[in-house]
Amino acid sequence: MSALPPCPKCNSEYTYEDGANYVCPECAHEWSAQAGAEAAEEGPKVYRDSTGTVLQDGDTVTVIKDLKLKGGGGTVKMGTKVKNIRLVDSDHDIDCKIEGFGSMSLKTEFVKKV
């Protein structure tokens, strides 16, 4: 069993040391050993909306600017309410369902808690 931390990007357990860095062979993510230790000491990630209010699973938020969807799927208009959000540790922090659009991921910087 390895004492090295799993990859923060893909959670692979096959990380290895390369000098002062850790490397993930599965996704090629590299991070410093010092940064990995600091992240472990910080605790759980706190998600904040565009105004700095702390968000939690199940909250209702409002979109603060028009968001064009990739693939020509239309535009989510400013003021759209999104109910029952789910916070995830990814490049987009919120998983949700929006009426008329379906499931999608949003960044916390583009929403405001209601």
TrEMBL record:
<dbReference type="InterPro" id="IPR013988">
    <property type="entry name" value="YjdM_C"/>
</dbReference>
<feature type="domain" description="Protein YjdM C-terminal">
    <location>
        <begin position="48"/>
        <end position="114"/>
    </location>
</feature>
<dbReference type="GO" id="GO:0016787">
    <property type="term" value="F:hydrolase activity"/>
</dbReference>
<dbReference type="InterPro" id="IPR004624">
    <property type="entry name" value="YjdM"/>
</dbReference>
<comment type="similarity">
    <text>Belongs to the YjdM family.</text>
</comment>
<keyword id="KW-0378">Hydrolase</keyword>
<protein>
    <submittedName>
        <fullName>Phosphonoacetate hydrolase</fullName>
    </submittedName>
</protein>
<dbReference type="Pfam" id="PF03831">
    <property type="entry name" value="YjdM"/>
</dbReference>
<dbReference type="InterPro" id="IPR013987">
    <property type="entry name" value="YjdM_N"/>
</dbReference>
<dbReference type="Pfam" id="PF08274">
    <property type="entry name" value="Zn_Ribbon_YjdM"/>
</dbReference>
<feature type="domain" description="Protein YjdM N-terminal">
    <location>
        <begin position="4"/>
        <end position="32"/>
    </location>
</feature>
